Amino acid sequence: MFESGMTPTNLLDWMYQDKNAADIFSLESTYRNWIKVEIALAQSQCEKQIISKHELELVEQLEHADLPDMQSFYESSLNVGYPIIALLSYLNSQLNTEARGILHVGATTQDIMDSALALQVSQAGAVLLSYIDQLGEATKSIVLQHSLTIMPGRTHAQHAVPTTFGLKCAIYLSEFDRHRTRIRRAISEASCISLYGAAGTSAAMGTDAVEIRRLMAAKLGLNDELIPWHVSRDRFLEVSNQCASLCVSLVRLAREIIDLSRTEIAEVFEPGEHHKGASSTMPQKRNPVMSEAIIGVGLQVIGQAQMNFRSGEMGHERAAGEWQLEWKTIPEVLIGAISTTRIALHMMSDLGVNVEQMRKNVHMQNGSIMAEAYMIELTNSLGREEAHNLLYEASNVSKIEDISLEDSLVRLLPTAKTIINNWPLSATDYLGNSELICAQAVGQWNKN
Question: Which residues form the Adenylosuccinate lyase C-terminal domain (predicted)?
Answer without folding.
Answer: 366-442
